[in-house]
Structure formats: structure tokens, C-alpha cells
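Protocol step 4 of 5: obtain the predicted structure for the target chain.
Materials: sequence only (see below). No template structures provided, no constraints applied. The aim of this step is simply to have a reference model before the mutagenesis design in step 5. Sequence pasted as it appears in the construct record:
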Amino acid sequence: MRLISLDVLRGLTVAGMILVNAAAGMKYGAEADVAPILLHKSWEGLTLADLVFPAFLTMVGIAIPFSLRQRAATGAPTGPILSRTGRLILLGFILSNLYWFADFGDRDWRLFGVLQRIGLVYGACALLFLFAGPRVRMALIAVLLIGYWPLALLPALDGLPNDIWQRGHNFVASVDRVLLGNHLYVKGPEGYDPEGILGTLPAIAQGLIGIAIGELLLKREGQRTRLLLAAGAAMLAAGIAWSFAFPIVKDIWSSPFVLVTAGITVLTLAALHHVLDREGRAPGIAATAMLAFGANAIAAYTLHQVTSGVVTWDVLLLPFHATRAAIGDPIASLFPVLIYIVLIWAAMEWLRRKGWIIKI
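Step 4 output (C-alpha cells):
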């Protein structure tokens, strides 16, 4: 079974990741006043930019029952899962350190990153799907999310005063500082890695939530939209209520952050499923365009990572400079970003029309 809504939502998340990264490139590379909703929160809170990565991790989990159900039934070896996990981590390490490879003495290398977290979450969730039942996985989601709260409130290992509402002042960040040293994304005495060590635990819970949604889609034909709406709304409400005590923080992947972002992702999937997966319903132009990103998600992200500087090329900045005085930076800065996204999309659409799927 293949649902168009899944491919379209995966494509939307990839396009969203490119959008927010390119917007950050405009802010820091072209000194544009970018709309705040397209930039990550420095700590507590949530913007559109903060939604795309957890949405992709949720989609990683949703895809696992579709891709591994035959392997689960036949008891096939786990070698391919471990191999794919290793390839994702290796590719992620390379992409996280492109500038370091160019000049070893210029900066510190970074151990973690986006693809590394995707690889770790995929590997853990795929193995749990094969070797643990649904009840065990649901219990593990609860243990990981509930247990992460007191873990984050433990005294910091390096003596920094603990204040979960203040950037970097928590046990989770201190583990990164102590074990990773200078090999962090956020530097300094309050530094940490937003894809760091302990934050991988609730990220795995996010993937397991995705698996539960994937199993629901496989088993509950005819009731999918209603159940997706109920599950998404319940997670969103629980996450918002919890956030008054444990803040929504992407950089440590807090438990309410997992529930809120998973809830929004599932509610979006419910809407797409209702519209796109009706029998005999052909996807519209917008949905078809997203299929190009969805079919080659990792390839699109990799191409974006190695070409991220293109968005600030002089030729792409021409419409920005020509219109910023008239319409303001927040809107004018979108022109180079959208042109850049279209260029990445064109490459992925070419692959799709050729029938080529680049798998990692």
C-alpha cells in the first residue's frame, strides 16, 4: 500500500528544511531582516522553522511499518538496517564538517548533526519495530518522554546553575559540553549540540510515535482520518499542557516539544490524507511538485547542504536588492530563497521523471 499523503508530507518537510536553512543563509550571509517565523528559536518556544526537522523524524517512523513489515514477518537479517544507519551517520558527519575538511586548522569538527540524528533514530526504531511489539514500544515512548523530564533537571555536570528556561543551563547541555568538548554546534561555557547525546532519546520516542501512526494507517482503513485527527489533537493538547512546567525547546528536544510537533505533523497528515488519498483522486499540481522532494528526500537535503551558499550568490540576490526598499526585507528576502528551492526541486523532479531513487 502506498499513500500519496505520506510522500507529499515527506516532500513538504524536506522543502521546509531547505526553506528555513536558506532563510538563515539570507540573514547571516546577506544581512537580510528575515521573517522571525522562518528562524529557529534560540531556546524556549516554537516557530515554523522548528517544526520541519521533528516532522521529518515522525515521517521516518511512519515509513518503517510500510517498508519493514515483510521483513518483520519473515525474520530477515538486520544487516541492511545497520548498514543504512551507518551510511546516514557517515554522510551526516561529512556534511556537518565540509568546512573543516577544507581547512583542518580553521575550526573544530562536529560529531553530530541532522543526518546523524536521522540515522540513529531510524536504526533504533527499525530494530524496535522488528524485535518489540506495539505495547512495548508504546511503553518505551512513555518511559523516554516522562523520564527525560527529571533527567533534564539534574544538576549540570560542569557546575553551571540549572535553569531549564535559560539557554544551555541544564544537565542535557552539560553532558554535551563534558563529553564532546569543543566539538559542538553552540560554542561557549553555555554551549551544547542541538542534535546532541541525550536529546537523541526523546528523538527516538518521536520516531516510535511515527511507527504507531504508520501501523494505524496500515490496519485501520476507513477510519484513518478520524483516528489521525484524534491522535494528533491529543498529542498537541498534552504537549501544550506539559509545556507550562517543562518548556518546548527544540535544542534539547524536550518532551513537550516531541508531543507538540508530532501532534501538528499528524494533524497535517490527517488533512492531506483526507484530500489526497481518496480513491480515483489525482494529486494537484502542488502535491505533485512535492512528490519530487518526497521521493528523493535525502538526496535533496544533501544537494542543499553542498550548495547552501548559492542562495547568497549575486545573481540570486538581484531581486532582493531591487525590491527590499519597496516591500521590506521579510518579503524581499524570500525571492532568492524561493529561486534556490526551485533549483533544488528541478534536480529532484528530473530524477523523479527518470525513475531514479537515490537511496542511502
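Step 4 remarks: The chain has two domains: 1-39+284-359, 46-278. Residues 46-278 form one domain.
Proceed to step 5.
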